[in-house]
Amino acid sequence: MTETVGTGARAAAGKKSKAGLSVQRVFTTEGQHPYDQVTWEQRDVVMTNWRDGSINFEQRGVEFPDFWSVNATNIVTSKYFRGAVGSPQRERSLKQLIDRVVRTYVKAAGDHGYFATPQDLEIFEHELTWMLLHQVFSFNSPVWFNVGTPSKQQVSACFILAVDDTMESILNWYREEGLIFKGGSGAGLNLSRIRSSKELLTSGGTASGPVSFMRGADASAGTIKSGGATRRAAKMVVLDIDHPDIEEFVQTKAREEEKIKVLRDAGFDMDLSGADISSVQYQNANNSVRVSDEFMQAVENGTDFGLRARLTGEVIDRTDAKKLFRSVAQAAWECADPGIQYDGTINDWHTCPESGRITASNPCSEYMHLDNSSCNLASLNLLKFVTPEGTFDAPLFARAVEFVITAMDVSICFADFPTEPIADTTRKFRQLGIGYANLGALLMALGHAYDSDGGRALAAAITSLMTGVSYRRSAELARAVGAYEGYARNAEAHQRVMRKHAAANELVRTYHSNDAAVRALATEEWKKGIDLGTKHGWRNAQASVLAPTGTIGFMMDCDTTGIEPDFSLVKFKKLVGGGSMQIVNQTVPRALTALGYLDEQVEAIVEYVAQHGHVVDAPGLRPEHYEVFDCAVGERSIAPMGHVRMMAAVQPFLSGAISKTVNMPESATVEEVEEIYFQGWKLGLKALAIYRDNCKVGQPLSTAKKEKAAAEPEKVVEYRPVRKRLPKKRPSQTVSFTVGGAEGYLTAGSYPDDGLGEIFVKLGKQGSTLAGVMDAFSMSISVGLQHGIPLEFYVSKFSNLRFEPAGMTDDPDIRIATSVMDYLFRRLALDYLPYEKRSQLGILSADERSAEVEASYGAPKVDLEALQSTVDASPEPHVEEHPHREAQTTTELMELRLGKAADAPLCMTCGTKMRPAGSCYACEGCGATSGCS
Predict the structure, then answer these.
(1) How far apart are CA 598 and CA 225, in angstroms?
(2) Is 90 exceeded by the pLDDT of residue 64?
(3) Which of 645, 717, 719, 853 has most Cβ atoms within 10 angstroms of its Cβ?
(4) Mean of the per-residue pLDDT values of the chain
(5) Quick check: keyword Nucleotide-binding in the entry (predicted)?
(6) 375, β-bridge pairs
(7) Which of 487, 522, 552 is the last residue of a domain?
(8) Residues 777-835: pLDDT tens digits?
(9) Is the confidence at residue 141, as pLDDT, over 70?
């Protein structure tokens, strides 16, 4: 029997037992500790870089519940367990991790009188433990990193800084940002107080302008971002639309993208994690333009708009509003920056306007509140509240929200902060950010299309219920332990915003008994909360946001992150013994059952999805149900406005905003970007960002396969490779090369009728291990070529491999190579592949690159159908047969399925392709993120 840790909770509660909260058990049973209700097992965590097989992390004999996935186990062990690996102090059980965090929360709750009795505090402890154990919710990553350790108890993932128009303030901005990045968190700020380059200094000179100071901050972030203790940093830079330097700000990253293209065509490595990308500026921040209602109305009416001096506020220049708006859309079309933030909407929903305007956001744009403030986040797993009957359990969800929001507020009592101004503001306003994950999976499981009225109605009702319960509990906390310090000054505004939320709830149109029931409960919660808050105030200035849920989404075994739809219908599942297997997402059969299909039909459709990756023409599936299975990518991807409409449905029920990037196809026009940004304002969003496929050089070339001829029935063909040997006498050529100072020779032999048939590589001294390995490698490649494996397949596999020796070469066509393998197969591609295929692989000669530069990068589009079919038909072993590739992910699977490269960088920790998570990226291999929660 596990020892109950409630004894300490009772002792702590005894110190203060005034009119605290009284709570009842929801998930737990009195007399039974949550740990005793699950089966525990020992596991070995060994995480490798699938590109070279090197071990990134290893810890054996860790203890987890048997229902936790291998992926969740690996990520929690490697990311959240504290103590030096291999030392006795290292955590080895999920029990230790949860206890470390929960006991800290329980002690603080007892010390500050949150609960009426010791029994209430024990219930709080057990309920939190049960929900974390069963993946019902998770705190944001800083809680798992820091709480209960000797480190500073930093619990916040999101920070907003402030900078004024003085050199002292600007230099302090660099310092504060560096401190936040050092801890692996991100920060955002608005630079609009800094004088423009069109204004004078008091000394008589001309001001530098905010864009010039962005360079120093960008360099600082680039230096620090990889050195954080826990994850990479992220940053947001905002500039108001009426700032005189707005055009320069809008164009910063677009101009740098042009520079990237020129450097790429000169042979430099400009991929997202390339060796030379660091020479380009402004790449470490997300940029957003803050637009006012006045500006958007000028765009709508086609009138001029005034740009204002920072010190006096007078109009010093006028511009065509439509032209300026088009330049914002043009830049976003070219390089995905800047995003847009709608100042009027943001501040209209501001609970504390008397204490200052909301001018900026965190890096992912979901947290928006006062300058020099922070927000700690937690997210609930929505799929945990689906009943066996296929409905959403609103009462259970409400009870869970009560415990989670209470714990989040408790954390502010003991939390540490990176700067004193941030600490002061956070303690005075107690901003929280409760949210959820798995919305896309939930909608699919219940038979709703993501882009549908029914789907949006349920999402809106759930979000309204979550925030309504949070504010009702916040009012109860205010009654028990006091309202936030800034409430008295902002009482009228706070009450007004609560009424706006409640009024928006009444406007939600329901379509099914399920979403109607959720909305009805939300209506009750808003009424209770407003009644209580009017009497006692509220404990928190804000309650909810929708964060990306990167690493914590993996911790909870979520199929989808934040507000996102399902990424794809198929994925790889890691196996305990190593390796992986391809499976269809479990939400697919649940959705089919919810839609009324029989078991035999479900089995046939799932088998079809496993083979094709989509549901189009699946046997027995009615076409009107196709939309339920639409995903972020794939055969039926959700239209950009479908994402915007979902954001608009839930935005009125969030204190903050939504972390999300609206993906657009490569064929999207600047006018379509304009329309997305304009409709975001019309629909009441607070922030919006877009990404047009393939708009960045750092994203590998993306070309979808053409549709197969539907009229032709598929034939079953058995492929048996036959070796075609080279004749005794064959043409060949030898190339000498130097890579990073290492010299070698490549000899390539051809068939008389053209086509590469063999290679020999001399590298290293005769008889050395390296020379022997290269001989064996050459023989293996040669035999493969003679069995019909196309050269372009080898080129795609071996180019871009990274290992020493690497660096400059003596080849004018390939200036830099990331390894000898990278050089060899790029050289073979240049010598033996036609231009069309090399263009798709991104391998061009110096002359061809120059020609493309002169043609403004207008490379012809090429049909990849033949290439993809040969790759598909080649005798490459299926991925399940490669245990060393256990880090294979959904992202890479979709690339294989579609012949389409995903918009995501490689993980800096394990080399795996990351996947989008809100406006950030998350790695399914190791859980690393690009700065999100």
Answers:
(1) 52
(2) yes
(3) 645
(4) 85
(5) yes
(6) 158
(7) 552
(8) 898 999 888 888 889 889 888 888 878 888 888 888 888 888 898 899 999 999 999 88
(9) yes
Q: Which among 627, 634, 799 is positioned nearest to 704, based on CA atoms?
A: 634
Count Cβ neighbours within 10 Å for each residue of 909-921 and write b for 16 or more, e otherwise: bbbbbbbbbbbbb
Q: From CA 403, how far away is CA 886, in angstroms rounded?
A: 37
Determine, yes or no, domain membership for 538.
yes
Residue 838 has pLDDT above 90, yes or no: no
CA-nearest of 841, 848, 837 to 800 is: 841
Q: By three-state DSSP, how is residue 69 classified?
A: coil
Residue 805 preceded by cis peptide, ω within 30: yes
Average pLDDT over residues 239-266: 90
Structure tokens at 544: 């909810």
Residue 765 and residue 777: Cα distance in Å, rounded? 16
CA–CA dist 637, 450 (Å, integer):
11
364 is catalytic: yes
Helix (H, G, I), strand (E, B) or coil at 373: strand
> Would you say residue 39 has pLDDT above 90?
yes
The tokens for 266 are 């000169």
714 token code pair: 């598929």
Element (H, E) at 306: strand 304-308
* Distance separating the N- and C-terminal Cα atoms of the chain: 35
Task: Tell me, yes or no, whether 535 lies in a domain.
Answer: yes
The one catalytic residue in 127, 177, 257, 366 is 366
* Rounded Cα–Cα distance for residues 581 and 574 (Å): 7
Give the tens place of pLDDT for each residue, 553-585: 999 999 899 999 998 888 765 555 555 556 788
Distance CA 752, CA 756 (A): 10
55 φ, ψ to 5°?
A: -85, 120
Phi, psi (5° rounding) for residue 410?
A: -60, -35
Number of domains in the chain: 2
Hey, is 691 helix, strand or coil? strand
Q: Encode pLDDT of 151-193 as tens digits.
A: 899 999 899 999 999 999 999 999 998 888 876 678 999 999 9
**Residue numbers of the domain that contains 534:** 6-153+378-552
The residue from 552, 584, 605 where one domain ends is: 552
Neighbours of 100 (CB within 10 A): 17
Distance CA 572, CA 579 (A): 10
Asked if residue 901 belongs to a domain, the reply is no
Question: What ranges in 115-268 are assigned the alpha helix state H?
Answer: 118-133, 141-146, 167-182, 210-224, 246-265
**177 within domain boundaries:** no
Query: What percent of the chain is modeled with pLDDT above 90?
Result: 60
CB 606 within 8 A of CB 589: yes
Map residue 257 onto helix, strand or coil: helix
Question: Which region among 98-112, 117-131, 279-293 has the lowest average model confidence (pLDDT)?
Answer: 279-293
Look up residue 811 and give its two tokens. Answer: 């080849």
What predicted TM-score, i.e. pTM, was given to this entire model?
0.78
Helices (H), 576-682: 587-594, 599-612, 640-650, 670-682
| DSSP-based three-state secondary structure for 428 | helix
For 206, phi and psi rounded to 5 degrees? -100, 140
Which of 158, 335, 352, 364 is labelled catalytic? 364
Residue 120 carries which side chain, given as an amino acid letter?
Answer: D
